[in-house]
Amino acid sequence: MTSALLVDYGSGNLRSAAKALERAGFEVKVSSTPQDVETAQSIVIPGQGHFGQVMTEFKQSGFEGPIREALQEGLPILGICVGMQLLFEGSEESSMPGLGLLPGFLKKFPKGYAVPQMQWNTLQRVGDCPILEGLTPDAMAYFVHSYYVPEESGVQSGALTDYGVPFWSVVSQGNLHGTQFHPEKSQAVGLQILQNFRALVEAQAPVSR
């Protein structure tokens, strides 16, 4: 059975994320042990809360080095919500740098719009984004966030969503993927995205570790 290592570094709703991954056909292992990355078939990085605090917890967990190595080796990785935000260079919310695996800095939504964005919103596919396969052009996901990845950040493929400004709601670069929204709260669309991620894992040649 296709497996996913759900990283427990002190942030994110692990229970709901694990259930969603199981519904998508994954065998889920929740782990706070960085060494488990060595035997992982895929990695899911959850996250919610303040960017700086979440990034601090992630760095203190010991997962950063092993996950960087796994990414270089081609292991499929999915970041969810703030777990996706951590993949970027940083955020206006904090002086703490991000992982810098993707280009761009997060900004806060402009004045005049309710913050956080808390609603269903559409996903406009851009470029080659395999985790969006099978979704209709009017597909919607459920968002709860105050900071966003600007369209001009340098991301090449994924999905754009508009909330006063266009922003990247899905990112896909090689074996690295992310969703700003929580798939587990996005019903059939979220399930399809997780199933697509599983299909990528299954199609991946075994990584020599």
UniProtKB/TrEMBL annotation:
<dbReference type="InterPro" id="IPR029062">
    <property type="entry name" value="Class_I_gatase-like"/>
</dbReference>
<comment type="subunit">
    <text>Heterodimer of HisH and HisF.</text>
</comment>
<feature type="domain" description="Glutamine amidotransferase">
    <location>
        <begin position="5"/>
        <end position="197"/>
    </location>
</feature>
<keyword id="KW-0963">Cytoplasm</keyword>
<dbReference type="GO" id="GO:0000107">
    <property type="term" value="F:imidazoleglycerol-phosphate synthase activity"/>
</dbReference>
<dbReference type="GO" id="GO:0000105">
    <property type="term" value="P:L-histidine biosynthetic process"/>
</dbReference>
<dbReference type="GO" id="GO:0016829">
    <property type="term" value="F:lyase activity"/>
</dbReference>
<dbReference type="Pfam" id="PF00117">
    <property type="entry name" value="GATase"/>
</dbReference>
<dbReference type="InterPro" id="IPR017926">
    <property type="entry name" value="GATASE"/>
</dbReference>
<keyword id="KW-0315">Glutamine amidotransferase</keyword>
<feature type="active site">
    <location>
        <position position="182"/>
    </location>
</feature>
<dbReference type="GO" id="GO:0005737">
    <property type="term" value="C:cytoplasm"/>
</dbReference>
<dbReference type="GO" id="GO:0004359">
    <property type="term" value="F:glutaminase activity"/>
</dbReference>
<feature type="active site">
    <location>
        <position position="184"/>
    </location>
</feature>
<keyword id="KW-0456">Lyase</keyword>
<keyword id="KW-0378">Hydrolase</keyword>
<feature type="active site" description="Nucleophile">
    <location>
        <position position="81"/>
    </location>
</feature>
<keyword id="KW-0028">Amino-acid biosynthesis</keyword>
<protein>
    <recommendedName>
        <fullName>Imidazole glycerol phosphate synthase subunit HisH</fullName>
        <ecNumber>4.3.2.10</ecNumber>
        <ecNumber>3.5.1.2</ecNumber>
    </recommendedName>
</protein>
<keyword id="KW-0368">Histidine biosynthesis</keyword>
<comment type="pathway">
    <text>Amino-acid biosynthesis; L-histidine biosynthesis; L-histidine from 5-phospho-alpha-D-ribose 1-diphosphate: step 5/9.</text>
</comment>
<dbReference type="InterPro" id="IPR010139">
    <property type="entry name" value="Imidazole-glycPsynth_HisH"/>
</dbReference>
<comment type="function">
    <text>IGPS catalyzes the conversion of PRFAR and glutamine to IGP, AICAR and glutamate. The HisH subunit catalyzes the hydrolysis of glutamine to glutamate and ammonia as part of the synthesis of IGP and AICAR. The resulting ammonia molecule is channeled to the active site of HisF.</text>
</comment>
